[in-house]
Design a protein that fits this description.
This protein is mostly helical. The chain has one domain: Growth Hormone, Chain: A, CATH 1.20.1250. The chain has 16 helices and no strands. The chain is globular, with a radius of gyration of 21 Å. The N terminus is likely disordered.
């Protein structure tokens, strides 16, 4: 057989040589983790600087900030629908490269904005690009991991959201001092360009990756062979399994967006914190949430290894997470900063554990070829819910000067979502996709 290697292929081969069992799937998972970190850094800069920008950008207030965020989420919804199908059609390597190239440029654009409208346009473009992150990550996990490891792998890459949220308060204040607030957008947007170079150099499918040993490839391909190659979203949209996932995302994704985009403003307004003083409370919140992301995946994976069914394992983990959210109801009634931080930290940790299992449901019940499309539909649903909640939050804050209604919604959303998911898919059985 003729050798058709490139310089990078030779590099892959040298990495894999001399080792009987490789662990390249975890290297891939690490790349996905850093992509998620970068995505959350890029979308988090405006949230951290919003109160500061109100003193600089004419007309910026809570309502108009809500519209800027809604623009991001509407674009995210549109992009999710497109990204899911493109990920299935183009493959993860090409689709991810296109997406992160687009969102890295878009992340730099707020650095040139001088009006509310300009920020809205920049965030709209950022939403279009970042929409591909989770469909591509979930599709990659489905390609590189057997089912019994997917929840844990998903929890690991999904924890990048928490790390990204930690990086923002640690890095952005320093960047503002060193290169101004405009430079902060430019520098953080440049992180994606570095990742893109690494991705194009390293990534291949496991069957084509020369660093993957025979033993690891057998593990990756140990699940039953699936015959379908591509499944367009129109074929999965009518299925109840798709709707269970989409409704779960619609009800719970907006809560995460609420914390991401409004928590810095809430802490600064409620407790009179400056940009520098807001740093440690946010770091603590998202440090706590990191534990939840990995822990949620670990719970269901452990139950699966103990012989429990996929249905019982996933839903038990999701129920535990939903119950851990409930104490956040008390947050707006408490006037002690670190108690609020603890309650919100527990809620964000529970969300991440919930999300790790919710994201795994499509790969549990759909063939690999359909996963990207289902994730895209669910992501679109979650983004629509997020856009509605962003607009509602802006008006509630402006006219009531209170966050109580938002914390009530955050409290009940997960239990409601789990009830709906169980009602639609009581057994979590494989979806039947007809020709």
């Amino acid at each position: 057989m003729a050798t058709r290697g490139t310089a990078s292929d030779s590099f892959f081969q040298s990495l894999g040589s001399g080792s009987r069992t490789s662990h390249q799937r975890w290297v891939v998972c690490t790349l996905l983790f850093f992509a998620t970190v970068i995505a959350y850094v890029d979308r988090g800069v405006i949230a951290y600087l919003e109160k500061f920008l109100e003193t600089i950008i004419p007309g910026l207030n809570s309502v108009r900030y809500g519209y800027i965020l809604a623009a991001f989420q509407v674009a995210y919804a549109i992009g999710m629908l497109i990204a899911g199908g493109l990920t299935d059609k183009l493959g993860t390597r090409r689709s991810f490269a296109i997406a992160i190239g687009l969102w890295s440029v878009a992340a730099m654009l707020p650095g040139a904005a001088s009006s509310v409208a300009a920020f809205g346009i920049a965030m709209f473009l950022l939403g279009l690009g970042e929409a591909a992150n989770f469909p591509a990550c979930i599709k990659t996990i489905a390609e590189w991991f057997p089912k019994r490891e997917r929840a844990l792998a998903t929890g690991i890459f999904n924890s990048g959201a928490n790390i990204g949220n930690i990086v923002v308060p640690l890095v952005v204040p320093t960047l503002v001092v060193l290169v101004s607030w405009r430079g902060a957008f430019l520098v953080t947007g440049g992180f994606g360009v570095v990742w893109l170079i690494c991705w194009l150099f390293y990534y291949r499918r496991p069957e084509l990756h020369r660093s993957v040993s025979r033993a690891e490839l057998e593990l990756i391909l140990s699940d039953p062979v699936e015959q379908l190659e591509t499944v367009p979203w129109r074929r999965v949209l009518p299925l109840r399994e798709t709707w269970a996932f989409a409704i779960g995302k619609f009800l719970t994704d907006p809560i995460w967006w609420f914390y991401l985009f409004w928590l810095p403003r809430y802490l600064q307004s409620t407790f009179g914190l400056s940009l520098a003083a807001d740093r440690m409370p946010l770091v603590v919140v998202y440090s706590i949430s990191t534990v939840g992301s990995i822990g949620g995946g670990w719970i269901s994976s452990s139950l699966l290894k103990a012989g429990r069914s996929t249905n019982v394992s996933r839903k038990t983990a999701m129920l535990i997470c939903a119950l851990c959210v409930l104490p956040v109801f008390a947050a707006p009634y408490i006037h002690h900063l670190w108690t609020v931080v603890a309650l919100v930290g527990l809620a964000t940790a529970a969300h991440q554990g919930w999300s790790a299992n919710l994201f795994t449901l499509p790969s549990d019940v759909f063939p690999k070829a359909a996963v990207g499309s289902v994730i895209g539909i669910g992501g679109m649903s979650g983004a629509i819910g997020g856009a509605l909640l962003q607009l509602a939050t802006g008006y509630v804050v402006k006219f009531t000067h209170s966050y109580v209604p938002m914390f009530i919604i955050a409290c009940v959303a997960y239990l409601l979502a789990l009830i709906v998911i169980h009602a639609i898919t009581p057994k979590l059985a494989p979806a039947r996709i007809t020709a």
